[in-house]
Amino acid sequence: MKRRVLLLSTLTVLILTANGAGGEGNVPIQVGSRLELFVDDLLIERMSGVRLRLHPPRMAEKVMTFDQPWEGTSSAYVTVFQDGDLYKMYYRGSGGATGPEDKTVEVTCYAESRDGIHWTRPVLRLYEFRGSKSNNIVWMGEGVHNFAPFRDTRPGVPDSERYKAVGIAAGHRRLIGFVSPDGLHWKKASEEPLLTDGAFDSLNVAFWDSVRGHYVAFYREYHLGFRWIRYSTSSDFLHWAPGQRADFGHAPMEHLYTNATVAYFRAPHIYLAFPKRFVPYRRNPVIETHSSAGVSDGLFMSSRNGVHWNRFLEAFIRPGRNDRNWGDRSNMVAWGILPTAPDEISLYVSQHYRYPSSHLRRAVLRTDGFVSVHAGVPGGEFVTKPLIFKGSKLVLNYATSAAGSIRVEILDVKGVPISGFRREESPVLFGDRTAHAVPWKSDALGRLQGTPVRLRFLLRDADLYSLQFKE
What are phi and psi of 392, to 5 degrees? Predict the structure, then answer.
């Protein structure tokens, strides 16, 4: 079966089976009522005339220009997350020197938004910069180079530690932790480092994994001379297991400068990552004089366990036609994905690194729209592995052309069509919907829950992004 992407290794599938996901051989996959994305082929047993297709985001407006005196041309390492009805952003301000006698000072800055599109810098008056506290600086101590906060959603976490962060210690060989009651006033979590088995000179990220019930960290290391990614877990944020090196299967050795790994908020059992691929030996000859060699773009990959990754080889975010994005460290995806409309999600991308026009831009996708099972005009089909679901309706996220279509047939575990859900009984779906329940004439779908079934999808000039069984 031909594919344009690297698929999950056998070891990955075995690990998933042990965790209850199933899918190896005749062991059914317990999908229950959770949302499943087609970012990999875990659910798919066979395909004909279809493929997994990566969908780059649409680049939208600038949301932040790093033009304040405490910011500057090398402001970067952005993190965003939702906190109630407020969106919060943290980033490194740096590069703000105005002359040889003015030393660059790195600071951690804070911004907020109600919609993920319009962001403001609140005047916090916490730290003095050049004689004034009229700024949005929230940290100026150790770890400021790549200070990466998150809201801790672990049940029972003390209010005084509701927000946590990781950052690099002096020497780049230790990752240290921080805590805060409000996301603004920070202190070290401990004098002891959290991890010491990485290089850490990048945006390292950590967060509470609600599905697996522990903290996770994804951080920088070097492997065979390449910038690489490690993964570790902790039950208390202070004591971490030895890191495991990321496995990208047979993907080529390339520098992955950052990782931006998240548990996707709509399907938190799936890790999504947006590494910045760094190509150090290239320099775009048409751009104006640039202090460092190398060019960068953004990638997309996914994992079900944090170690074994399904990585698309083509770029998710290209530098594009703006020459200033062809510098050495532009096109860096921030940590975090935010819902910015009922049918869209947004990521944030650093652009024009090292230039006075350095800024952050919003990148937009349809909800769940990272990857689809795609069929062209000739049409194609795929059949899932045995699934055990919970619910009385099947909800699909799909898009077709005006002449395109999607039909779905339900089969028993042996591949025999089930009466009421045969191909000829399946409605022809067309249009562009992010959450559409298949309107079978039969109302007996709920009677099949708990019983292993297969789904057969027939597509023509269409994309299927995700599925979910619901009540």
Answer: -120, 0
